[in-house]
Amino acid sequence: MTELFDGYHDNYRDVVQSSIDFSGLPHHFFMRAKADLLHDLIARRLDTERPEMLDVGCGVGSLHPLLHGMVGRLSGIDVSSASLAQARASNGGVDYREFDGRTFPFDDASFDLVTAVCVMHHVVPTEWAPFIAEMRRVVRPGGLVCVIEHNPYNPLTRLAVARCEFDRDAVLLSAGTTRGLMAAGGLREIGARHFLLLPWDTKPARRLEDTLSGVPLGGQYAVFGTA
């Protein structure tokens, strides 16, 4: 996986955009939807106003400019050193570190919020449980673990994955599977939300999406649990 993403570090956004061009939407639309979802989760599920956050599998850091003012200390880890080099060049003030794909380079209970955004489908399924265990290890008691993934039941999502060059070996996991992994990993108060159902960035569309977030129709989903 390291070699795969090292090869795409300088054109990552272009490759992703080409895989979703059929939607008529820019990559930024999808990143903004994720940032908005995280903002809402922070307000609803965490006591701290600006949590210290770790982004696991952060890649080139595309999400991080959208988190300014939302989180306090922000850290990102990835197996691709080339991707991290670009992330550092684009995002000052973020603590970027390489990791070996197994053990996160942080002490226990280091963060209030730990996320993995469209990462787990690149992880070998036999390593899903250890991956969740690492996320739980580095989050503080009362903190939040959040996994955002592609919804395998959405046909347009499956089309986008099929069109994406670095998703060739992706194994999509359902929200139910992710919930089960979190429960087995000792997380509690586990919830799920589906999003990216409607291709419009308007207030009425967002309100309708919120109403339908419990229905497994959106292009992506978030599963989250408290440590």
Give an account of the 3D structure.
The chain is built from eight helices and seven strands. By secondary structure, the chain is an alpha/beta fold. Helix 4 links the parallel strand 2 (74-78) and strand 3. Mean pLDDT is 87; it is low at 2-9.
**How many strands in all?**
7
Give the overall form.
globular
Order of helices and strands: HHHEEHEEHEHHEHE
Radius of gyration: 16 Å
What profile does the largest beta sheet have? Answer: 7 strands, mixed
End-to-end distance? 29 Å
Strand content: 15-25%
Overview features:
227 residues; alpha/beta; 7-stranded mixed β-sheet; globular; disordered N terminus
Summarize the structure.
This protein is an alpha/beta fold. Helix content is 36%, strand content 21%. Strand 4 (111-117), helix 5 and strand 5 form a beta-alpha-beta unit.
Map the helices and strands.
Blueprint: H1 2-6, H2 12-20, H3 27-45, E1 53-56, E2 74-78, H4 81-90, E3 95-98, E4 111-117, H5 128-138, E5 139-150, H6 155-163, H7 175-184, E6 188-195, H8 203-211, E7 220-226
Parallel strand pairs: 1-2, 1-4, 2-3, 4-5
Antiparallel strand pairs: 5-7, 6-7
